[in-house]
């Protein structure tokens, strides 16, 4: 057999792994195929699609660009009438789904809509009868115009969405049959609220406003880096991304115990988006924060931001289940959240990771005034704290997801040693076992959304820390949930775009 034939056989094995939703193995086979024969565009476009499934959008863009470099005409369309429901799972090798599609999809996922629009227009130019691409152009163009409009009307010191909101005068809906919420949060209210959510019900809009505003005030007063020590006979549980997977959140509490004054929790960002019970997750976490402000903690994640919420479902879910004002109040509360938590001066917990400059210290985080910058932007400390990822190689490198950067074990070692830390704990990425310890034990990733997006097959995990500051890991599996798909409330056309 020739090298090309051997490479094609490896690609076919990659396709089998892809169909089995084993993205890591698929990437491995596609990479081996490329190492044997690097002139075939489909090897790169297939690997790009696997990277998209793993949210490695920067790598997907690089692969798609390489495929275009090899064959700029790799964009022919098939008979659209044969494929009324476009699904990249099913069309790995059809010319309908090729490099321009992949690159446009990856750019859309990281909110680079103008770049995506350029690629969709190339598809239309080269293949004017491609009806799917025409729909994508219209969808992407609408998003670009929407973002431009929102930027044009943006006011730096806009009034709060709470202005004019007279909660005391609001009347609870007559048909509301749940526990009443007075001036303070109670265990009884939370237990009733959780049961209502499990039954597919909502809480009164007045109570939603009360919860969000109470927590906004609590977290606004907290420092940018919360510092907490664990007292004897107390436990702090660190959880990673929950991403609107409400029933899996309840599984954490079932396995590990519900929050209390002596059993604290730290949820390390990305409470919302993708999963279709994001309001339920956010309200549950907020209710516990209100009830136990000194033992229940919330760090901000990259999905507690307006642009991600518009694309990945939380804004649409707030509108569908409550109203637009609820989303705006959540948005204000998200921008008030702390960016990090320091546990016992030993573990630095933040959503993304470390920094592009070795000179950054814990004191810089302490001094950071997060209230001057509501959204993280494209650079700076806040963006890096929410977006960066570890890499196995020393030094720093470009981000595999296309936003931020990557940091190596030497970067982590220097940061921990100069700040007197044992390790950093971060989230932000799926880990198939629910957690991973890397960088010689100094970098720990914990992810708490098992079977992420109903497609990944990963475990979830959480970390228990007692007063001895030893880390105890617990893995758990996803539990059944009602038949609502992930991103059911996402921006129109998003699923097609990515």
Helix count?
18
Question: In percent, how helical is the residue content?
Answer: 40-55%
Average pLDDT: 91
Task: Report, as a whole number of angstroms, the end-to-end distance.
Answer: 37 Å
- Secondary-structure content class: alpha/beta
- Count the E strands: 14
β-strand percent reads 5-15%
Radius of gyration: 23 Å
Function: Protein phosphatase that specifically binds to and dephosphorylates the molecular chaperone Hsp90. Dephosphorylation positively regulates the Hsp90 chaperone machinery.
EC number: 3.1.3.16
Protein name: Serine/threonine-protein phosphatase
GO molecular function: metal ion binding; protein serine/threonine phosphatase activity
Mind explaining what this structure looks like?
The protein is an alpha/beta fold and 498 residues long. 43% of the residues lie in helices and 12% in strands. The chain has 18 helices and 14 strands. The strands form three sheets. The chain has a six-stranded mixed sheet with strand order 1-5-6-10-12-11. A five-stranded mixed sheet has the order 4-3-2-13-14, covered by helices on one side. Strands 7-9-8 form a three-stranded mixed sheet. Strand 5 (340-343) and strand 6 form a beta hairpin. Helix 5 runs antiparallel to helix 6 (113-126). The longest helix is centred in the first third of the chain and has 23 residues, at 131-153. It starts with a helix and ends with a helix. The model is unreliable at 76-96 (pLDDT under 50).
């Amino acid at each position: 057999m020739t090298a090309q034939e051997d490479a094609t056989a490896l690609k076919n094995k990659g396709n089998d792994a892809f169909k089995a939703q084993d993205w890591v193995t698929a990437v491995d086979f596609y990479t081996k195929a490329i190492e044997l024969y690097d002139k075939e565009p489909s090897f790169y476009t297939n690997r790009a699609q696997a990277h998209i499934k793993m949210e490695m959008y920067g790598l997907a863009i690089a692969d798609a660009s390489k495929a275009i470099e090899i064959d700029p005409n790799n964009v022919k369309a098939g008979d659209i009438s044969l494929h009324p429901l476009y699904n990249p799972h099913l069309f790995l090798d059809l010319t309908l789904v090729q490099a321009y599609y992949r690159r446009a999809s990856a750019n859309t996922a990281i909110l680079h809509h103008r770049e995506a629009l350029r690629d969709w227009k190339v598809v239309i130019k080269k293949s004017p009868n491609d009806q799917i691409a025409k729909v994508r152009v219209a969808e992407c163009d609408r998003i670009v115009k929407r973002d431009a409009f929102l930027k044009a009307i943006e006011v730096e010191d806009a009034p709060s969405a709470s202005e004019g909101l007279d909660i005391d005068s609001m009347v609870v809906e007559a048909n509301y049959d749940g526990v009443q919420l007075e001036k303070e949060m109670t265990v009884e209210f939370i237990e009733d609220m959780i049961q209502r959510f499990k039954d597919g019900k909502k809480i009164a809009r007045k109570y939603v406003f009360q919860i969000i505003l109470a927590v906004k005030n609590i977290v606004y007063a907290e420092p940018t880096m919360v510092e907490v020590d664990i007292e004897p006979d107390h436990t702090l549980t660190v959880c990673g991304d929950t991403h609107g997977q409400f029933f899996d959140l309840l599984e954490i509490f079932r396995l590990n115990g519900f929050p209390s004054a002596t059993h604290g929790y730290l949820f390390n960002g990305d409470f919302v988006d993708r999963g279709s019970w994001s309001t339920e997750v956010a309200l549950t976490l907020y209710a516990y924060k209100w009830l136990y402000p000194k033992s229940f903690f919330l760090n901000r994640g990259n999905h507690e931001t307006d642009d991600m919420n518009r694309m990945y479902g939380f804004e649409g879910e707030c509108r569908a289940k409550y109203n637009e004002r609820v989303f705006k109040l959540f948005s204000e509360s998200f921008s008030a959240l702390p960016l990090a938590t320091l546990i016992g001066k030993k573990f630095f917990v933040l959503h993304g990771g470390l920094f592009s400059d070795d000179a950054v210290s814990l004191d810089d985080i302490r001094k950071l005034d997060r209230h001057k910058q509501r959204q993280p932007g494209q650079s700076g400390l806040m963006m890096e704290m929410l977006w960066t990822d570890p890499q196995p190689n020393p030094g720093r490198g470009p981000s595999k997801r296309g936003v931020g950067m990557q940091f190596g074990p030497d970067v982590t070692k220097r940061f921990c040693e100069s700040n007197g830390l044992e390790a950093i704990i971060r989230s932000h990425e799926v880990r198939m076992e629910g957690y991973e310890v890397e960088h010689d034990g100094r970098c720990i990733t914990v992810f708490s959304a098992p079977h992420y997006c109903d497609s990944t097959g990963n475990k979830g995990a959480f970390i228990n820390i007692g007063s001895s500051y030893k880390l105890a890991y617990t893995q758990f599996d996803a539990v059944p949930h009602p038949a609502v798909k992930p991103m059911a409330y996402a921006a129109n056309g998003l699923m097609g775009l990515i």
